[in-house]
Amino acid sequence: MNILQYSSNYQTEHTAFKVSEKASELIRKFHQSADGLTLKNWKVLSEILDYAAAAEQTIAEQKKYISNLEEMATTDMLTGLLNRQGIEHEITHAIARAKRFNEQSLFAFIDLDCFKFINDTYGHNAGDLILQQVGNILKSSIRATDEAARLAGDEFGLLLNNCNIEKAKERAGYIRHSLRKIVVNYNGEEIHTTASMGFAVVDHMSTVNDIFEQSDKAMYKNKRDRRRTKNKYHLS
Fold it and tell me: What distances in angstroms separate CA 182 from CA 24, 41, 78, 235, one per listed residue?
């Protein structure tokens, strides 16, 4: 068997391996100088390539595993949204873009109204259904460049990236209106919920802590004022 015949057999028998472009280029170079190679040398080369392909596959699997772990660390398992750590990471990026490109973004802090009453009256399974519906509404209501998160309990966050602030407030208002339409049928009863919302502008002067503090403060002002007046939103 000559070198090129062995090469053909080698390629056929090892199609399951993903050989790197560099390794493939090496094979082509050996083909071009095949007259000076012996079968023994080619077998050694094939063993090296087998090892390289297996190592490459292992590395790819490890990268995927690490990526899955990172996703789990930043994802809320109940709703599929980002968790607090995940949204803080995205806010940090938004601040960096604001400093570099003078972008502005808007963060909306959302708190469900009377959620403790729902849990106490109907149980946590009913509460979980409400939270999942909120998650679905937020995911379907934002752009691909925006981010939604469940911060903790019945608290959620929206990061509307690189946007006109007034228009972003209007968009967030539409989302809040959608949250008022949530109805969960649980054990023959209809459960409704509403939400309060507060805003903070993300710009080059922002810090993550300031954004959460400002939006949280604005949300609670909104919640108090909605009980007394028809005011909609406040921005600290």
Answer: 57, 70, 17, 25
